[in-house]
């Protein structure tokens, strides 16, 4: 039933797309201002677009593209517009099943149809990971890292663009590698913290050209291949325990020669911005009180003492600087009081936590987010700000679990960046007072049984072991015999 419904909707959608001729030039981009922010280790783009309906009928659908090789790395693709009462509202563009050699297309539905001759303004915003490449790949330890970025030159729409500017923000210096190959000239202006390129002429729709440039950025490209984020919920101790296991790589420039500690010391690299990772900063949520003395930081070798917690920020200092291409795996953990996260109504609980605590300026390729609910709990519902596959639900035994074990709920996320750290996951579950009482009662029972067992074992030991063991036990045997004699007496 569900599947057929889905197929029907899908067919309807495809036919609608075909019916309205998606690539018809119903719009003109009257103003198109694009900003590429290169201040972090991933790309952030913001396009301020004003469109005019140049057709003879009202229009509501706007199509735009992203290069095919980039689109798997694009995340949080949203459009924002101002409503009539001045508030900001969000639109979610959808990928459409239209094939093209170079581009993936997105369909953006405006909130209402725009009349012929009228304009609509909106902001398109997204982030793209995996785009920054050190250039050259290998450099000496003391040299400044240069990053190469390969992007596209003009708006990726089939509509003509009357006025277009491209700003590279958060860098003072940009070197273009292919400016001369571009059909529409750019006028370059260098500003205090950005470099602007202004198109000298109208850009026809479907003018697809690469634009490649370099800029200095002497900071690491912190990349987390895998994060396992575990949350343990305990109503009994009123704690929310977090443990995070990281597999991290610096995607920054590699050393051209082997690592030299003396050079590292004389250049005092640890004390200035550098392409090696010397510290990782995790700014925590100010609104939640963390239990300071519960923080730990462990790597393959053992406890690492060089971490600091200061003004709600955890600063982790690895044992060695992590240069480009180097890996580092580690685990950190800390506790919160649970009641800051949970709301209860009768037997139902709602827990709201962040999907990430976010290492500053980093990309997360794969994240397994697991929440361990108490034994006997039942997952009712969950909510996330973006679509993900259904979670995997299993049971996991831990200390003192007696029957089915903790309820383990795992969500798999991909392609996150630290700026998504404020996004929350909300989980609703049922946990009856019976289940809550059940565990300690059971535990008490098993502890009792265990003690009983010990008692019995002691009895057995005393009677069986004497012949193979030491004098001490023999003397105990004697004692027993004595006792026996006494009791006989
Ligand atoms: C690590 O340090 C904590 C206290 O800071 C201690 O309880 C724990 O036993 C240590 N672990 C190892 C493996 O040294
Ligand atoms: C980190 O973990 C990954 C995956 O398990 C492994 O391939 C890599 O060798 C580890 N790196 C270090 C430095 O231990
Ligand atoms: C992440 O979780 C899924 C589902 O539980 C599991 O299949 C997968 O192996 C996990 N990934 C890693 C690297 O442990
Ligand atoms: C997350 O929220 C806190 C306040 O709750 C704010 O200070 C911080 O700037 C936000 N971080 C991001 C990356 O949006």
TrEMBL record:
Q: In which pathway does it act?
A: Protein modification; protein glycosylation
- Got a GO cellular component term for this one? oligosaccharyltransferase complex
Q: Which residues form a coiled coil?
A: none
Q: Name one Pfam family in it.
A: Ribophorin_I
As for subcellular location, the record says: Endoplasmic reticulum membrane
Family (UniProt):
Belongs to the OST1 family.
Q: Write down the PANTHER family for this protein, in alphabetical order.
A: DOLICHYL-DIPHOSPHOOLIGOSACCHARIDE--PROTEIN GLYCOSYLTRANSFERASE SUBUNIT 1, RIBOPHORIN I
Protein function: Subunit of the oligosaccharyl transferase (OST) complex that catalyzes the initial transfer of a defined glycan (Glc(3)Man(9)GlcNAc(2) in eukaryotes) from the lipid carrier dolichol-pyrophosphate to an asparagine residue within an Asn-X-Ser/Thr consensus motif in nascent polypeptide chains, the first step in protein N-glycosylation. N-glycosylation occurs cotranslationally and the complex associates with the Sec61 complex at the channel-forming translocon complex that mediates protein translocation across the endoplasmic reticulum (ER). All subunits are required for a maximal enzyme activity.
Q: Which named protein is this?
A: Dolichyl-diphosphooligosaccharide--protein glycosyltransferase subunit 1
Source organism? Pichia kluyveri
């Amino acid at each position: 039933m569900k599947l057929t419904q889905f197929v029907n909707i899908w067919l309807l959608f495809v036919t609608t797309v075909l019916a309205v001729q998606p690539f018809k030039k119903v719009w003109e981009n009257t103003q198109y201002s694009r900003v590429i922010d290169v201040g972090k280790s991933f790309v952030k783009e913001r396009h301020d677009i004003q469109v005019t309906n140049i057709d003879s009928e009202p229009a509501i659908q706007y199509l735009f593209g992203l290069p095919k090789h980039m689109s798997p790395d694009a995340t949080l693709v949203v459009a924002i517009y101002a409503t009539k009462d001045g508030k900001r509202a969000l639109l979610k563009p959808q990928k459409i099943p239209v094939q093209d050699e170079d581009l993936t297309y997105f369909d953006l539905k405006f909130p209402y149809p725009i009349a012929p001759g009228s304009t609509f303004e909106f902001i398109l915003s997204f982030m793209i990971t995996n785009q920054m490449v050190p250039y050259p790949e290998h450099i000496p330890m003391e040299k400044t890292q240069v990053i190469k970025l390969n992007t596209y030159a003009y708006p990726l729409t089939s509509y003509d663009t009357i006025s277009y500017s491209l700003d590279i923000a958060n860098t003072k210096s940009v070197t273009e590698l292919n400016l001369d190959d571009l059909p529409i000239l750019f006028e370059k202006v260098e500003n205090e913290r950005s470099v602007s390129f202004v198109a000298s002429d109208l850009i026809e729709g479907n003018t697809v050209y690469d634009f490649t440039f370099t800029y200095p950025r002497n900071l690491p490209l912190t990349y987390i291949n895998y994060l396992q984020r575990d949350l343990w919920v305990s109503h009994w101790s009123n704690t929310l325990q977090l443990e995070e296991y990281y597999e991290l790589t610096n995607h920054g420039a590699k050393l051209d020669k082997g690592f030299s500690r003396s050079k590292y010391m004389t250049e005092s690299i640890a004390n200035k911005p550098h392409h090696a990772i010397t510290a990782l900063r995790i700014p925590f949520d100010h609104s939640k009180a963390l239990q300071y003395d519960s923080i730990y930081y462990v790597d393959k070798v053992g406890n690492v003492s060089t971490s600091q917690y200061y003004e709600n920020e955890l600063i982790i200092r690895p044992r060695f600087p992590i240069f480009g291409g180097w890996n580092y795996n580690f685990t950190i953990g800390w506790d919160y009081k649970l009641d800051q996260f949970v709301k209860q109504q009768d037997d139902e609980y709602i827990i709201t936590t962040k999907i990430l605590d976010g290492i500053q300026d980093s990309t997360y390729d794969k994240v397994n987010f697991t929440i361990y609910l108490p034994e006997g709990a039942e997952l009712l519902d969950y909510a996330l700000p973006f679509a993900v596959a259904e979670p995997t639900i299993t049971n996991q035994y831990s200390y003192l679990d007696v029957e089915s074990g903790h309820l383990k709920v795992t969500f798999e996320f991909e392609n996150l960046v630290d700026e998504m750290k404020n996004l929350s996951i909300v989980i609703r579950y049922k946990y009856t007072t019976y289940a809550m009482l059940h565990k300690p009662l059971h535990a008490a029972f098993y502890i009792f049984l265990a003690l009983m067992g010990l008692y019995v074992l002691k009895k057995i030991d005393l009677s069986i072991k004497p012949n193979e063991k030491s004098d001490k036990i023999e003397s105990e045997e004697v004692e027993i015999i004595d006792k026996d004699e006494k009791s006989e007496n």
